[in-house]
Structures are given as structure tokens and as C-alpha cells.
Amino acid sequence: MENITHERLLIIDFGSQVTQLIARRLRELNVYCEIHPYQNVTDAFLADFAPRAVILSGGPDSVTREGSPRAPQSLFDMGIPVLGICYGQQTMMTQLGGKVISGEGTAEFGRAYVTPESKLSLLDGWFAADKEQVWMSHGDHVSEIAPGFAVYGTSPNAPYAITADVARNFYAVQFHPEVHHTPNGAKLYENFVRLAGFTGDWTMGAYREQAIAAIKEQVGNAHVICALSGGVDSSVAAALLHEAIGDQLTCVFVDHGLLRLNEAEEVVGMFRDHMNLKVIHADETELFLGELEGQSDPETKRKIIGKLFIDVFQKYADQIEDAAFLAQGTLYPDVIESVSFSGGPSVTIKSHHNVGGLPEKMGLKLVEPLRELFKDEVRALGVELGLPKSFIGRHPFPGPGLAIRCPGEITREKLEILRKADAVYIDQIRKHGLYDEIWQAFCAILPVRTVGVMGDGRTYDFACALRAVTSVDGMTADYYPFSHEFLGETATRIINEVPGINRVTYDITSKPPGTIEWE
Ligand code: XMP
What is the pLDDT of residues 121-157, one digit of tens each? Predict the structure, then answer.
């Protein structure tokens, strides 16, 4: 969003793997910041962005290499506080007249301990013990500090682990305060933003007002359409847009018949009845299940669903007159990723997996009101906008829905059994107070029938698998260690309450080698 009026901090990215974490730490301190790759940060950009302070990130290059990245020299004449981290420290020293060397004895990777030299406001709250654990990851090190700088902390392989030119408010550290392995690192950022005079004006309340104004300005009197999936991002985007432009927003909820028990009614009911949004409930169950009939290959199933989703969305969107914008719930990590990886000045934006390619095809412009937010900030905004906390905290649910939790051929009978079993399982998890500890939990119906005995009779019914994982981002995951008591009780409930299932298993595969979903 343009015209951000909050106090702004600029992070110049030199390509570190953990630059995003710097932004996270700052946002936690209610400081608005943006990450921009060093190639884009020209003198003109700096003047225009007008940051209150700048942080130079780490990076993989060596400042001793000719042509290696630098910060614009004008940065150091702006009279604003600068904090250099790792590579950022080294380029700062080089640009301000110090020296960096590479070679034997200059590298340090992993845990290290810094001891203090003298007092520094940046280090308030540090060295309660005589040393602080920090995380190092550097090949080169500073061998001569720049004029005006003094040393405030050292580590065995970094004689200049913490340096500062207090008069100019320049700080430079060799380690990474943003990672968890620097346990007191957040305190250092807190001190830095305090020294830079930030008041902590980045709150969800303030963001909401500003985002609404920006949406109004971008959209004017035009009509916006939004694909509502029932997930957190599209829901919060829709709620925010609705607050900004009211009836100029129409949402399309594509119901592929692969949703969980009562899900379509709940989502549509919440938006339509409680929030007064215009929602088209596109119930295309027959179309989707018809096309999926007889298909058992996972990729074929996914492709069919993906294609139909776009066709259906387009069909309904075409009926909305004067639609000029398509809303997407793009988040800040998507934006940063594309900047850092492409490295070039033009930002490639990842398309939403469900509506990719549609905006161009339909001649629609994009409105992306969550572009500046991290996932947890989206949740906070959702609560601010009045979405129920239970809805905001829901586990992720995949676009292809129950199709990928029904390995093999999909039938209506199997879907119905799966919905019921899943509902009992989730109810159990909630009753035991475990829902928020688990990243994602669901039930899969297996494509086998097994023999059982119930009462005095023989049964020959489906088996199901329970899945529950802990994860941070879904990229890696571990199975959740339920107690045997919980598992036993849940299996009994499912078998008693769900006709069609006579055997329950618990999936204890981590990712990798497994994936979270079964297909
Ligand atoms: P996997 O199974 O790949 O899943 O370990 C990782 C996370 O992504 C979700 N997932 C999807 N989400 N469309 C989505 O929106 C998809 O096609 C899709 N496939 C998997 C999955 O639920 C898990 O949270």
C-alpha cells in the first residue's frame, strides 16, 4: 500500500536467509518496516522512503570481493541511526573507512559468546551474566574499525563483535540478533528503535484505518470481486474490503462439495448474515464430483479441481457488472520472497494458487490489502475487524479440500463418512484443549475395507487414519504425540458414532519423508 504514514524503518537486504526475521522482531515492537534488496535502494529511493532508521542485513557475499554489494554512501550522511548486522556490519566498516579481512581464523559459525568491553545504550539489559550467547555465521571479519567507532563487545573470533559510533548513532554487530539462538537479541532491536525515537505506532488499529483509506483511494467507485475460500487470508481481506467499500464488494464462495461438515453453511452464514457481505454461494458440487468420478490418480484429481475452480469462479465473476478489481490475500512473505529471489528491480507477485492467471485474462486489476502483513498480523487484524477468534485460529485447509484426504477414488459415500469422522476427531481435540497446540489435524479415509466384529456380527467397513502435526510453516512437520488414552477414546468414539468405519489408525509419519496431506 502506498502513502504509509507510520514511522518507517528500512531494512536493506543483502540476501541473508534470515532477513525476514529482522522484520518480524521489529513488527513485534510495533515498528513499521520494509525489506528492500540493496540493488533497489538508490539515493533517490532513500530520500523518498525517508526512513527514521536503517538496518543493513547479513548476506552471503564477501565485502573483500570487488563489486560486492554496498549500501548507498548517502545513507551515512542522512543523520539517521544505522545498525549493521554481519555482512551489514562489514560493508558499513568498509564504507566508513575501516577494514575487513578474510582468511584463516576469521570465520565463526554457530553459537558463540560475547563479552562486554564498556557500557552502551544499545546493550541495555544485556550482560546480566558476564557474557551473552549469540549466533554467528561469518567467514570474514572486521580487522580495523572505522574512524569514530569504538568496541563494546568481543567474541573469540570476532574482536569487533559489537562496535558503535555513538555520536552518529551507528551500530554494527557481527552476529545475528534476530535469530532465536541469540536469546537476548530482541532486546537489542528494542534498544535500537528506542534510540532511533520510534514511538511504536504500528498497531492493528492504526493499520486498519490506513488500509481502509488506501483501499478507497485505489478502488474509487469500482466494483471488486473476491474469491472467498473460508481460509483466514481471504476472509480477512474480504472483511477489510467490506469495511472500506461496502456493497462495492462481491465475494464468490466456490463450493466444490469437498468441504468439511457444515463448512459451506458456516462460512456463507457468517459473511452473509452476520457481516452483511454480498456472497455468492456457488454450489457446484455436482460439477466437481461428476468430473472426479472414477479418478484415483492424485495429480489428475488436483488438476481437475484446479481447472474447474477457475472456470467456476470466472463464470460467476462474469455476472458481476462493472467488476474492475480482483482482491487477493497476498501476504508480505510472498512479496519479500519474490523481491529477494528475483533480485531485480521489478517485483514479481506470486499469484494465488486458486485464481492464478485470471486477473489478466479477465482484464482485472489487483487489490491486495494484506500485502504488508505477516500471517500473525493478519490474524490480529481479523480479530480487530470482528471475525470470531475461533474462526481466525482455524487450522489450514487445502484448496482441493477433502479430495486429497480421500486417497483413491472419491465417492459421495466416502465423503460423507469422512466428514463425520473428521468432525468427531476435531471435537475430541477441542474437548481435550489441544486444538491450538496442533498446527493441523484431520482425518483421511483409506481406500480399504477391513473386517471387524461389532456386537455379535461381522463388519466389513472402511479404515481411517488420523493425522495431527506440529509445524511452523507446513514445510516440515512432526506428528503430534497424543496420549494413548486420547487415541483410544477417539478411536472408540469414531467407530461408535460413524457408520461405515470399523478401524482407526494414527499416522506417525513426519514430513519429510511424508507430506502432511495424504495426496
Ligand atoms: P503437504 O501435504 O504438501 O501440505 O505437506 C503442506 C500444507 O499445505 C496444504 N496444502 C494445500 N493448500 N492448496 C492449498 O491451499 C493445495 O493444493 C494444498 N496442498 C496441500 C496442506 O493442508 C498443509 O497445510
Answer: 999 999 998 999 999 988 888 999 999 999 999 998 8
Q: Answer whether residue 272 shows pLDDT above 90.
A: yes
Query: Which CATH number is 411-506 given?
Result: 3.30.300.10
Contacts 24+ apart (CB under 8 A), 354-358: 354/227, 354/229, 354/254, 354/306, 354/309, 354/310, 354/313, 354/399, 355/227, 355/310, 355/313, 355/326, 355/328, 356/310, 357/310, 358/310, 358/313, 358/314, 358/317, 358/326
pLDDT band at 114 (very low <50, low <70, confident <90, very high): very high
pLDDT, mean over the chain: 91
DSSP 264-325: HHHHHHIIIIIS--EEEEEE-HHHHHHHHTT---HHHHHHHHHHHHHHHHHHHHHTSTTEEE
Beta bridge pairs of residue 11:
35, 55
Give the Å distance between the CA of 392 and the centre of ligand 1.
18
Between CA 364 and CA 358 the distance in angstroms is 8
Predicted local confidence at residue 512, as pLDDT:
86
Q: Could you read off the pLDDT of 36-76 as tens digits, one per residue?
A: 999 999 999 999 999 999 999 999 999 999 999 999 999 99
Grid cell listed for 414: 466416502
- Give the SS3 label for residue 443: strand
Ligand 1 site residues, Cβ closer than 6 angstroms: 353, 396, 398-400, 440, 474, 511, 515-517
CATH number of 204-392: 3.40.50.620
CA of 84 from ligand 1 middle (Å) equals 37
Coil, strand or helix: which one is 260? Answer: coil
Tell me which CATH homologous superfamily contains domain 8-195: Class I glutamine amidotransferase (GATase) domain (3.40.50.880)
- CATH 3.30.300.10 in the chain, residue ranges: 411-506
